[in-house]
Amino acid sequence: MYLEVSKLHKQFATLKGPVVALKDVNLQIEAGEFVCVVGASGSGKSTLLRLIAGLEIPTAGQVAVDGERVTGPGADRGMVFQDYTLYPWMRVQQNVEFGLKLQGVDKQSRREQASYYLEMVGLTQFAQSLPKQLSGGMKQRVAIARALTSQPKILLMDEPFGALDAQTKETMQQFLLELWEKTGTSILMITHDVREAVFLSQRIYVMTARPGTVQKEIVVELGGVRSHTTRELPKFKQYKDDVMAQLMM
After folding, report:
1. What is the pTM of this model?
2. Which domains does the chain have, with CATH numbers?
3. What's the pLDDT band for 204 if we cut at 50, 70, 90?
4. C-alpha 199: how far from its chain's center?
5. d(CA 172, CA 141)
6. 22 in helix, strand or coil?
7. Of all residues in the chain, what percent carry a pLDDT higher than 70?
8. CA-closest candidate to residue 38, choices 246, 214, 207, 220
């Protein structure tokens, strides 16, 4: 088991008093799994991801990666946000290398690793481009390549395709599945898009409204290689309807 979240509780202090964002959250991700978490706005999805990333401290409970308790950010967890978070003054190659540079990796090694992942995401020819010269989908590929260069045990993704148009989003979903199959990296993805969750994941955790907790775990068994035709399968609609029914409760 690569990731285990146990009895996780998060409370924030506000001027109007304490607000409980998450309450008694339990979930697990095995090595090589692709898991999505879905929930309505305010269900604590992003807070959950920030706790797993080590960017927030839980009020109670714990997060463990490969048996080690999470106490802060670490190279074992890569993070991809919705807004790309690329440095506009750095070229694509420099953006991808940046995390390795912070870790003290020598210039030659980080160049080789960055080049490898740029090739994997299909952007080798854009290595010397600036972010402003890229489309939204290409920027997100750069962000994913940067997250993968540290070879994390788990890739955390917070609504990574939320800012993209419908056609680009579907293209990026297919790309992400292919990348996941190539790398075998565990992925935990937060999304509000039910169709996206069903298409991508092996399991879905449905969150309740605040305070957020896991309402249901749904195993997605669509079989074979997923493609654009997968979304037309009767089973796909059944899973989508099941998730929607949980969200409407």
Report:
1. 0.92
2. 1-76+155-249 (3.40.50.300), 84-151 (no CATH)
3. very high
4. 14
5. 8
6. strand
7. 100
8. 207
